[in-house]
Amino acid sequence: MIEEYFLLSEKVLSKLFRLPPKAPSYFLLKGDASERNFVRIKYYEKSQIKNSILMIYPNREDNSLKDYLDIQRLLKNHKLPVPEVFAFSIEDAVALLEDLGDQTLLQALSRHPEEIDSLYVEAIEILARMQSSLNVGKEESIAFKRKFDTEKYLYELNFFRKNYIENLLGKKIQKEHSHIFDQGFYKMSKMLAEYEPLVFTHRDYHSRNLMVKKGKIVMIDFQDARLGPPQYDLVSLLKDSYVSLEEAFVEKMINHYFIMRENCNFPVKDKVNFMRFFYICALQRNLKAIGTFAFQKVSRGREDYLQYIKPTFEYVKKNPLIKGDFAILWEVLSKYL
């Protein structure tokens, strides 16, 4: 399989460059939760060693690469930090990208914990600029043609029910409990779907999708962007399954987010209501993430994702809404954990 990727890399390089680069070497990188593959290519150009990343999509028939290129263009046009696209081939479902190195925000926090404030402040500022500067309805992009709606939220919550409770834990949900799940999940999904205003949403704005190159944050994995509530990406960043943040730090970053929204002429008008929906978003997204981790284990044999289930459930257990709006749902859900 690895050899196939290297042969494909050679073929694509020959197509993308007028003259194929001299002495290229290929290194298959460890993949993420998606089905894409990434090959680091080192080659000589004008006597200098250059690095690029070849992103390979498994399915040439769908529009995934087109979506990636569309959203990369949108973000770049607004001077938001994304990798450069040097060349691409829709026919081969590949793109040659800027090499951002190997350091994610998660890794940067591990190596330089003293920089946590500056890194998260930068991530918050990028998020506020992204939400305030992209002109919803005034620009052409696939991101503005799809959105989080009741059906999408509900699908993700049922994905959790199926993959975590039924498939990973192997538990059969009682009929009367299934009815309570249906009601609670629908209530949560409908509440989120009716929130306004909607903004551009990265959808996976967390510590493994933010690279740190030369001390600056660059976003990756944005191809599934869509319209959604502004709380969604903030939750992804501050209720992150991969890194546990102190609650006092989370509150400080939320306050900084409010300040940045003001600075971007996009103020949060009702902070109490904003925070209520922040926790609704957190509950939905955390349950969805647990379902994804379970799916990775059950369907793809990825044991490494199991370690993130416990810290994600800690977020759920500390969510104030499990004692309020969703107390009945939590009472039933906790019976299966």
Q: Mean pLDDT, as a whole number?
A: 91
The fourth-level CATH homologous superfamily of the largest domain is Aminoglycoside phosphotransferase (APH), C-terminal lobe
The count of strands amounts to 9
Highest CATH level, the class of the largest domain: Alpha Beta
Q: What is the CA–CA distance across the termini?
A: 38 Å
Number of structural units classed as domains: 2
**Biggest sheet strand line-up:** 1-2-3-5-4
Q: How helix-rich are the residues, as a percent range?
A: 40-55%
Largest sheet: 5 strands, antiparallel
Helix-strand pattern, N to C? HEEEHEEHHHHEEEEHHHHH
What Rg is obtained from the alpha carbons, in whole angstroms?
Answer: 21 Å
Which strand-content bin applies to the residues? 5-15%
Determine the structural class based on helices, strands and strand pairing: alpha+beta
Q: What would the CATH topology of the largest domain be?
A: Aminoglycoside 3'-phosphotransferase, Chain: A, domain 2
The low-confidence runs, each spanning 5 or more residues with pLDDT under 50, are none
Shape, per Cα inertia axes: globular
